[in-house]
Each structure stands twice: as structure tokens, then as C-alpha cells.
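User: Could you go from structure to sequence for me? I need the amino acid at each position, not a summary. C-alpha cells:
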């Protein structure tokens, strides 16, 4: 087993009912997607922090790293606002620790750097651009694997190779 470089802490959040981002289309989808990127969520754990910070980047600069932007983690609330959900794999990074090189993430949305031997050995330092690349792959899958809010047969889409095989194969498919 690989040594854990950052401690994991059980976190619980209290949110209202959410539905998948992919239930929206057109401008509603785009607005909610950018809401997720801007980090429009208010779980109790971070509510005070979010009163003076906004956005995914602001949380990153405060050493709160989501580490798993993926289509399953982008949700919509009852008002149509996007919510970046599922912070269970998030890291709270501290300066007195080695910068994280965990390969946390969902393979179809992982950055290309992590889909390498060095990435799977934990030898790639996690950078903010890796989080952004996760959002880009998420947007790509949403655009190519959904039509009018309905998921297409993934096996017949241009992103089929993102969802099966080794990490090397997924990297080549991307």
C-alpha cells in the first residue's frame, strides 16, 4: 500500500436535494456548470469560510483542495444553481507537510499527468492546473455523452475510451 501523504478526515455536509448537472440543457446547463466552478455550495463545515471567499480557486489558495472534479460531483439544487459536491476526498493541505502527490480522482476526468506511471506511483505533485483539467474533462464528457439531458450510450460516443481500460489507454484516448 502506498503511504498516505495527507491525512484524511471524515467530513459530513448538510445539503438540500440535488440532481445531476446533466439534467439541464443549454444556458441553464452552462450557468450551473460555472456555478460549480465558482464553488456555489454552502455545507456547514465551510459556510463561514465561504462568506469571504468565493470560487474553487479561492478555496485552493486557502489549501482546501477538492481533488475530484467529475460529472458525478457537479450537481444542481432546486433553484437551478450548480453545486460542487462530494468533498469526501478533499485535502486540507498544510505548509508543514510535503505537497500532496495523491492520485485522487475519477479516471475519466483525471488530468493526463496522473494517467502515467509517475502519476500512479504518486510522483506527480498536485497543482491547481490539474483541478482545472478535471473540470475541462468533465465539460468534454457532458458535451459528448449527453443530448438534451439524456445520457447517450457511452460505448458509442467519442469519450467511450475514457471509461474503461488501463490508465495508459484512457490517457491515449484523451
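Assistant: Here is the amino acid at each position, in order:
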Amino acid at each position: 500500500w502506498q503511504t498516505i501523504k495527507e491525512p484524511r478526515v471524515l467530513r459530513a455536509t448538510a445539503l438540500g436535494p440535488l440532481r445531476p448537472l446533466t439534467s439541464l440543457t443549454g444556458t441553464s446547463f452552462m450557468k450551473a456548470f460555472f456555478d460549480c466552478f465558482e464553488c456555489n455550495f454552502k455545507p456547514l463545515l465551510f459556510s463561514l469560510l465561504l462568506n469571504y471567499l468565493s470560487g474553487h480557486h479561492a478555496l485552493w489558495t486557502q489549501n482546501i483542495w477538492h481533488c475530484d472534479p467529475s460529472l458525478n460531483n457537479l450537481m444542481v439544487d432546486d433553484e437551478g444553481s450548480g453545486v460542487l459536491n462530494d468533498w469526501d476526498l478533499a485535502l486540507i493541505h498544510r505548509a508543514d507537510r510535503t505537497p500532496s502527490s495523491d492520485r485522487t480522482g475519477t479516471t475519466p476526468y483525471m488530468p493526463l499527468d496522473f494517467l502515467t506511471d509517475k502519476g500512479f506511483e504518486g510522483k506527480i505533485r498536485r497543482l491547481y492546473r490539474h483541478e482545472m483539467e478535471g473540470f475541462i474533462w468533465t465539460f468534454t464528457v457532458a458535451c459528448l455523452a449527453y443530448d438534451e439531458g439524456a445520457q447517450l450510450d457511452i460505448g458509442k460516443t467519442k469519450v467511450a475510451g475514457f471509461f474503461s481500460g488501463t490508465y495508459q489507454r484512457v490517457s491515449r484516448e484523451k
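One structural detail worth keeping in mind: Strands lie at 19-20, 64-65, 74-76, 82-84, 91-92, 146-147, 150-151.
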